[in-house]
Structure formats: structure tokens, C-alpha cells
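Give me C-alpha cells for this 463-residue protein.
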Amino acid sequence: METAQSKSGATRRRRKAQTKTFVLDTNVLLHSPVALDVFDDNHVVLAMDVLEELDKFKTQSSELGRNARETIRKLDALCAEGKLSEGVALPSGGTLRVLISPDPRDLPTGLSENNADNSIIRLARQLGNNTERVIIVSMDINVRVKANALGLDAEDFEHEKINFDELYSGLENVVVSEETIDRIYDGQVLESVPSDYFPNMFLDLTAENNSDKHAIARVFPDGSLAEINLRTNQIYGIEARNVEQRIALELLMDPSVGIVTLVGQAGTGKTLLAIAAGLQQVQHDKQYERILVSRPIIPLGKDIGYLPGNKQEKLSHWMEPIFDNLDYIFRSNPANLPPPGAKKQGKLVAPQARIEHLLQTNVLELEALTYIRGRSISKQFMIIDEAQNLTPHEVKTVISRAGEGSKIVLTGDPYQIDNPYLDASSNGLTYVAERLKELPIHGHVTLRQSERSELAASAAENL
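Here you go.
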């Protein structure tokens, strides 16, 4: 008969056998400064070359530089607990070691190159020969491929990742009784909403005996269900062209929704709707004091290099997509508002002059994400465009800048990511959409139909 003591010993042996050794690539630490703390009671190993690479980044003013400095400070604090070469206990229950990679002359010539990637692979190979179960963790696909080719286990950094295929869409089709839809049409507020629905989620209701009878209803934070606000179908001359755009407008125009995430492919109207809603609430409703627009400075293709001028002039080149949307809005909503210092005339003012007027009167502010850290932004309508190029940590930094009375709108297309270490499941935009879906202050919708033009819609669908 097995005693309690023998069972306990078997459990300890089983846990020990399951302990893994994770060898981290530099890009994991640069991506997330909490990376050292998320491997539970397993062993974490850093190659000395990783510290050398962190040292190269630590002087940068970018998010990579800040993450490098934070990681180095954590390593310095751990030095007080013991020698990193022998292993230091981590708060998560595991250990951390910093080791020197073996001499490349003792290994296959394919790994003899003197670079950090191959150094990490050589170290993992050596640890594996010591009967440890070793897994390389890297956000660099090529490192994982090379490791696999050598028979080593390698995986992506899964912390802060979501399942993009199951991303919360913000809209669900539901079949209900015809009586329920009639009550929605009559303006009644229904109090019985299933518990698996989230605040500010929208339901496309279809009558069970009449498929032509539809209603779009919203789940409010108090659990009630009511028809969408029909008065917000057109904002600043821009009219919703489909159900998802109509939902986006309601979320954008509701001041109780402090953060909105809009996901969709090119041409679905994400940025256009966000800017139109911002103009309406800043210039007409006086809900906010100004519109602040920012986007990651990541080029598509080869960078064109240095740009002359002051900050505003440099940013204007990166903000051309914003100006294109403003131009479209102003052409759809003409006015005779004069530029600053000019007398009001009967002629309509050109869209470009109206854009200049917004910038000069500080109604519209363009800001580089680099300079948002440290700010406290109150009473502003903040639009972060191309947010799919941000890491979860960067998005957290941006959102934490929002002061009293501000609203944040994150827009982007997870299929068009220019950051080499992010994908549809690990970027900040989809991370926020999934992680905040249960909060009453958040609203989300995935826009699926391109409305830019027939050509753009065909490209998005078929190319």
C-alpha cells in the first residue's frame, strides 16, 4: 500500500522531471520587460551575448531602449541575490542563469558565425547535451527555423498573445422571437440578457419565424438590451454604410465608452469614422478640447531616411493618411470657415485651408508616439492609428497617458503589420480588444466590408 509520504515523493519527482530550461533571445526581453517573470518555476537562461545586445539598445530613447534598461535593472537587482552564473531565484519560483556560449569551433561549421543568434543556439545545444529539456524562446522566425533544423525545440514568446482566429468581434448574430424584435422596435429596454454577452457588445437580432425581420441592439453595462441610437447614423457629413460602421459610430460618439478598438482591413472606414467623430465632438458638441492623432513611425518598404524641418513638419509626412481622411471629410461637408487672420467670405474654403486652420488653432494636434510617454492628456479625443504595429506594452503605455475626460480610439489592420516581431496574435491592438472586452468602459467592433471603392474592396478580398 502506497503511503502519503511515498505519494509526496512521487509528486516531487514528477514536478522535477517536468521542469524546463528556457533560453531567451534578446528580442523577447526587448518586446516585454516582464519576460523574466512569466516562466513559472522553470529555469531561464540568458547567453552572455544577449547582455551585449541589451547594452547596445540601452541608450536609445525608443521603447526598445526603455525595455533594455528595465531588463538590465532587473538583472542588476538579481545580482544581489547570488551569482548569475550559478543560478539566482526568480520571483516566479524558477531560476535565472547567465552563461557563456561554447566555442563555435567545437560545433558544426554551420553555427560558427560570430553572431548572437547562433550563440544562443549553441548554448541551447550544449545545455541539451547535459540532459536538460531545453526550449529556445525567440520572436525571430529564422532563429526558430535554425533551431528546428538542428533538432532543438523552439517556440515563440506566447505571453500577451491572443488567439486571433477567435478574436472578439463585438457583434454576434442571434435568433430571437418576433415578439422580442417588436419590443426592440417599440423602444423598450429588455433586462434579460444572457450572461455570456459583454458590455457594449452588439447583437444582430433575427426573428426565428421571419428571417427578413432584423434589429440591431446593444448590450449595456447594466445588462439591459436596447436598440442602437438611430440619431448617430451620420456624423460630420459622414454616413455609415453598413452595420459595422453604424456600430462604430455609436461607440465613438458615446462619452461613457472611454476606449474603442476598431479592427478591419484597408478601406473599411476605421480612421475616417474616428476622425469624423472626433471633429463632431470637439468642434460642435464641445465634449473634448482637441483631437490628438498619433501613429507608429514604421515605414512600408525601404525608409526614405532623414526628413528636414521641425517636429510638426517631420510628422506631417507620416500623417498623410490622416490628412487624406480630413480632405475627404471636408469635401463631403463644405463650409466657409476662414483660416486664422482671414476675413469671412462667401466662398467655400478649400479643405487644405481648413486642415491648416485646425492645426493653427490647436484643435488638431499631431504627436509622435515617442513623445507620449510621461504626458498626462486630459479632455482630448485621442486617435492611435495603425495600432497593430505596437506591442502590448507600448499600447499600455499610451493608454495610461489618458487623463480625466479623455477618450482613446485604437485603429488598425492586423493583416498589415510592419513590425518584424509582431503578428496578428501578438500585437497591441488585438491584445487590447480581447483583454478589455469584459470592461464597461471598452467597446469594440471588427469592420469587415471595404467601402473605399470597388477596386479597394476587390484588392482586400482577393489579393
